[in-house]
Amino acid sequence: MGDLSPLADSPSCEDPIQELRIAFPFCGYIDGAEHRAITVQQLWRVISYATAHCAKWTDNSPNSQTRGQNLSEAVLNLYHVNTFLILPATREDDCSCVELMSSEPQDPLWFVSHWWGERVSGFLECIECHVKTRGLKDEAAFWICAYANRQNSLLQEITEDPRTTSFFKAMQLARGVLLILDGKSDAKTGPATPFTRSWCAFEVSMAVLELKKPIDVTTLDAENGPAILTEGYTDFESKMEKKTPGWGSRAKSIRESIFPIDIMAAGLEVAIESASATSDEDRIRILNSIAERSDLEQPPLEKHANYAKVNKRLRAVFALAVWFQAVQKGGKVEMKKLAKAVVEDEWRKAILMNFAFCARIDDYHVAVVASALHKKLVTLELHFWMCNLIGNSGLRALAKALPPTLEALTLNFQLCTRLTHMGIDVLGLQLPLGLVSLRLNFEFNSSIRSVLGLARGIARLSSLRLLDLDLGALDSLDDNQLTDIADAFPAKLRNLYLSFKGCHFIGSRGVAALAYRLPHELTVLNFNFSNCDRISDSGLQSVAYYLPKTLMVFHLSLLDCTHITKEAVIPLVKRLPSSLHGAKFFLAGTSVPENIQKICRHLDSMREWAPQLAKSGDRHAASGLRADGTVNEGRMLGRSLTSLCSSPRFTTHTIASTARWPIFGLRTGGSGEISAAGATTMSGSLSKTMSPALARAAFNDEAQSGKDSAMKRTKTSSALKSPKPVLPQIVQAPNSLTPT
């Protein structure tokens, strides 16, 4: 804790002390050191006074490198400030430095872990940089032990157990931990001295192991000034990322590019058992506390499993913090050492790494990332947005390394243009079977010709609850591939997000396939068909009919789908499930009138509009829905089959299995029997879209005993003679659209 010898022991210090009392009058006591955080303005006030008067101060500490010298701003550190300012100013009232500037509690927003030997002027620059970077308000307070604790009665502030000290309590109150590293200097210390200090290592380990607090790392670089590595986005970057995906990541990478990552290398070698402290008593207590020994005063053990655990966990934290810049700058930190640090943290349940806009990352670097994944990982989130050097070999290496224990997987390969369906197929085969959440983004990767392998992999995920696929702007994606995706929907799926933005070969048949296969207990649905200009009203009407009754949130984007009209939107609004809590449709660029577009932006306005539609009679019965929202089976059947029969996969098997769709059995409890109106329309639809021979094959005259007369063979444009025909039970084709 530094040399605490009081300046007032010398008679020549009487005037300086009086001057201190005038500059920092006592304001009042604040109970609990954890409530004595200091604002930036208050910190500036203390450091400004110290730098203005330090030329009069002579360093008499026996262990100081400036012993016997008059001090200056260039060497002034917190040990000096404590000796010459804090101790004498607070002695009379036995208070903390913060209590000389405030009588009201000031809870910490951030906890600061640092070394007392760094220059206080550089320390202040780092704090100001953090305030600016994080967008904190002027009243934001930082917990800094030297100013929060009552230095003249320190033994009362620091208890025997480090976990019950004011340090730990303040950390519990704080949003996160700010680790300040000293940079390279002419002094015989540093860089990154906190990595070798017991208190700093203990504080950061507690933040990671017990309190789950985010850790920001900052330092003062001689060339570029203060620089900071943040855990996650800043508020500004988060808003930017939300508005334009990828741009928040880009802003973060640019901001962090000036950080001197070589000083972080020491963090990969941290060893808590070898760390030092000003007070050996503190070091002993910290080690015994980590080892969970009841007697904290006994000599510490040389080795303990908990020492190794703390070391491995800290090394992983520092490795993940610096990984992006290590790739971007190349050669500053050995990549395999980063992977080793992360993979050894077997207690880490989640890994999040963002390499968006990293121009240097390639298949080798992705393989190194893959080698960092230990076999107990539960959550993995990797972003490679616009990393053009990544190809199939990198994706294959990553896919094969996916831990079997994964429950949540997010992979963003947007604009990784070297990827093809060959890499995607391997990923599909390697998806861990226990996944509960899967988010994949392959937008703008036009070399991906097929997603069949991926769809088959998803179909195996029986525990999947959330599926988020962004396959936008894949030039080869068509209705057949949407059918493959639809067939892959796991039955237990609850949240579904699908984006096919800019897939110009997708039409109504693909949309109908997706709609029909929607899981019955779905609660969240988000479809993005923007710029899919082949989609027409019939596709949207299929969505209207098959919306799950359990749906709570429904978002639909049809921007610039020019063939969409109000004739499809109206039945969709009518049939919105009563379970919905939120819904919005984006219809700009369609043929839907602007007033209806505006109504469809909010669920409340759509609910207000729906009763008016019900009163309008059966004007919109052409949609397949009556004014009251019930199904006009004949018309709905005709529209559905018109879309289906255009498929190159449409066969007699498809006809038979299609007859088992709920729409055909709506009036008969799903028995497979078709109403007279439905059968008539079905006959007409088939006659218009297929050869007479195929139509006859579909409607052979097998009789069903005791129920209805046999279905006669159809002829072009002819009506069925039997009022309740029954389709024969024909074996289902592999890729046909059939209910489960």
From TrEMBL:
InterPro entries cross-referenced by the UniProt entry: F-box_LRR-repeat, Leu-rich_rpt_Cys-con_subtyp, LRR_dom_sf
Region (Disordered): 702-740
Origin: domain of life: Eukaryota
Annotated Gene Ontology cellular component terms: cytoplasm
Name of the protein this chain belongs to: Uncharacterized protein
Protein source organism: Polarella glacialis
